[in-house]
Amino acid sequence: MADITREFKELKLYGMAQCWAGMAGAGTVNLQVCEGVVRSLLEAENTDRGVRPIRCQLRSARFPVHRDLAGFDFGASAVDRALICNGLMIPDISRGRIQCH
User: Fold this and answer.
1) What Rg, from alpha-carbon coordinates, does the chain have?
2) Residue 78 is part of which domain span?
3) Does residue 42 sit in the same domain as residue 21?
4) Cβ contact 88:101 at 8 Å
5) Cα(40)–Cα(81) distance, rounded to whole angstroms?
6) What is the DSSP letter of 80?
7) What tens digit of pLDDT does each residue of 2-37 get?
8) How, if at all, do strands 91-92 and 97-98 pair?
9) How far is residue 93 CA from its own chain's centroid?
10) Residue 78 is inside which H or E element, if any?
C-alpha cells in the first residue's frame, strides 16, 4: 500500500496520495479490491505522461513540404530558369529522357 502512495507522490498527485493514505488508515475500504484498479490507472497515467511531450512536439513541428522544380512556375517568379537549370539534370519521366524542365 505504501508503494502506491509513493507512486502517487512521484507523479505529483499529492491529493490522491493523501486520500489513499486516509483510506488505508481508516480501514473502511477493502484496499486489496481497489489496488488493481488503482495500479492500472497509475500505469495509464505514466504512459500518458510519456506520450504527451512527444505528441506536443509532433503537433508543433513544422515539417517541410516537398516541392520540386517540375511544378515550379518560373513565369510568376523573378528567378531565372536558365540559371537554376544550368548544370542540373532533372529527369523527365513522362518523355523518357533527362532534361531541365
Assistant:
1) 31
2) 69-98
3) yes
4) no
5) 62
6) -
7) 799 999 999 999 999 999 888 888 887 788 888 889
8) antiparallel
9) 37
10) none
User: Are 32 and 55 found together in one domain?
Assistant: yes
* Model pLDDT, residue 89: 57
How far apart are alpha carbons 23 and 53 in whole angstroms? 33
CB atoms within 10 A of CB 64: 5
Number of domains making up the chain: 2
User: Could you tell me if 77 and 50 lie in one domain?
Assistant: no
Question: Cell numbers at residue 21, please?
Answer: 493514505
Global pTM reads 0.55
For residue 20, report the phi and psi dihedrals to the nearest 5 degrees: -65, -45
DSSP state of 96: T
**Same domain, yes or no, for 26 and 47?**
yes
In the three-class reduction of DSSP (H, G, I as helix; E, B as strand; rest coil), residue 89 is classed as coil
> Cα 18 to chain center, whole Å?
32
- For residues 68 and 49, give the distance between their C-alpha atoms in angstroms, rounded to a whole number: 39
80: its cell numbers: 531565372
